[in-house]
């Protein structure tokens, strides 16, 4: 076999006999190897050899004048436990061999039986390769568990773990640390305009700019989406603000170009001092809220949290309401109430479904406490879907399909402004009505005047889709924008609800009374029926009847009642 056809192998041999080393080299060549061998016979020489390069195989004699296999094995395992270690000796006893194997040697061969050497070497080289591959796979899995696959930054879980360690350090040693929560301001525009490939590339490029702006001792992480966290170790607040300004300017100065599109990217940063008396989870939440306070204040800026920070305190309260709302949706903490809508000019009455949140003590929390948080965090579409589903389930239990054959009562459900643009909404409503056997004409949906005018095209499409299903549509809170009277020509709804702010003062304020009368008249001209809200006494109820308003809703008619099998229309 030609020399170049042999497999090169780096062999470190601890052997005091040069002749025995040559015998081993000959066996290796017979087996198809081209050994690059180095012979050592002392601990110092072996340590120097281990430090100088990597070795594919280590072979050692047992007894040498000032060095034995135990010493060699100790040095080998300290250097690399994976390197195959084989004893080749003429005087090793079985007890010593077994002890060496227990200590980490991979095999032993007697010098008078070198025919076992090659099979042992080949087996251990394969095993070593398998061990390395396994360790590399484990290392990859560990890396993936703690790192973001897109940016290769550490992920949120690992960042939170390191933040907890930093909090403990602050409590024990009193060193100053800081936490930054960074959110990109134009990321959604890039994603929507150019697609997710562009968004991913933007995140990678922003990552490189952030890495250039932090110190080696700092921790940079991708927390999710377009949000990043920076943990600034041993960093006073003033220095932390300087670093945050550097990061902000680096992003502001960057122009992202994709195909024929170019984008100026901004960021909002929340900054919190890390102390030992605030838990890591709370610190991250405060930094998040400080970041969104920066967004509320105009974006492209830094907001530093302090204990008297009213902006963050308000947002913290909203986050708590959001969490309670989410828990309520998941754990039957949200409940539906129904308020009767009395017919003033006929016999058929209707009702409106109202949302309530159960407190821990069983008391009711009105929607003005939790709906603002849902609106701010874009949770209202999910709330609307919850109401639609549970309303249909309850109506099915109340045997609405059978009653609808003789009654024409409409149960109204409120839709939020953000739901107008949900393309799947009308399809979802159709599916719910069909699966629960609810006649479409028994269900109505209320859309506020402001939402309809603000999102006019989507409002038109949704109204048309709902009426095509057979559902009724009411325009809620009408009259707050008097310039919108002309929109009634285009908004093809069944009912107009006169805003309660005018109704409740209509007897004491001449202008409010005129507005109520005007809305009622124009609504009728447009072919719609009218509903007056906030009817709080019998005198107002009488006046509305005289004006020809079709329906009245308010405490003078009925208080809201639980939406149960018992009809609430008779409750006063």
Please characterize this protein's 3D structure.
With 572 residues, the chain is α/β, with parallel strands linked by helices. The chain has 3 domains: 3-143, Response regulator (Rossmann fold, 3-Layer(aba) Sandwich), CATH 3.40.50; 156-307, Reverse transcriptase/Diguanylate cyclase domain (Alpha-Beta Plaits, 2-Layer Sandwich); 337-365 and 380-562, Alpha-Beta Barrel (TIM Barrel). Helix content is 47%, strand content 21%. The protein is built from 20 helices and 24 strands. The strands form 5 sheets. It has an 8-stranded mixed barrel with strand order 15-16-18-19-20-21-22-23, surrounded by 5 helices. It has a 5-stranded parallel β-sheet with strand order 2-1-3-6-7, sandwiched between helices. A 5-stranded mixed β-sheet has the order 9-10-8-13-14, with helices on both faces. The longest helix has 30 residues, at 117-146. The chain starts with 6 loop residues before the first strand and ends in a 10-residue tail after the last strand.
How would you summarize what this structure contains?
The protein is of the alpha/beta class and about 575 residues long. About 45% of the residues lie in helices and about 20% in strands.
Any descriptors?
20 helices, disordered C terminus, alpha/beta, Alpha-Beta Plaits, Rossmann fold, eight-stranded mixed beta barrel, 572 residues, 21% strand, TIM Barrel
